[in-house]
TrEMBL record:
<dbReference type="GO" id="GO:0050660">
    <property type="term" value="F:flavin adenine dinucleotide binding"/>
</dbReference>
<protein>
    <recommendedName>
        <fullName>Berberine/berberine-like domain-containing protein</fullName>
    </recommendedName>
</protein>
<dbReference type="InterPro" id="IPR012951">
    <property type="entry name" value="BBE"/>
</dbReference>
<dbReference type="Pfam" id="PF08031">
    <property type="entry name" value="BBE"/>
</dbReference>
<dbReference type="GO" id="GO:0016491">
    <property type="term" value="F:oxidoreductase activity"/>
</dbReference>
<feature type="domain" description="Berberine/berberine-like">
    <location>
        <begin position="27"/>
        <end position="51"/>
    </location>
</feature>
Length: 59
């Protein structure tokens, strides 16, 4: 923290159901994830058919 390199990121494997780990990611990372999702899943199948969990649409 004293060097300014500490990130307040919640890792998905460590997150509980009431936490939103994607919301703790830097905006640049979220933007990149959204770009990748748009490229490889333009119909948003993996966002719509998965009923719960850590979804980009909830971040």
């Amino acid at each position: 923290k004293t060097r300014g390199s500490h990130l307040e990121t919640i890792y998905m494997n460590d997150a509980s159901r009431d936490q939103n780990p994607l919301a703790s990611y830097p905006e640049a990372n979220l933007s990149r994830l959204r770009e990748i999702a748009q490229k490889y899943d333009p119909g948003r199948v993996f966002q719509v058919l998965q009923n719960d969990g850590f979804l980009l649409s909830k971040a």
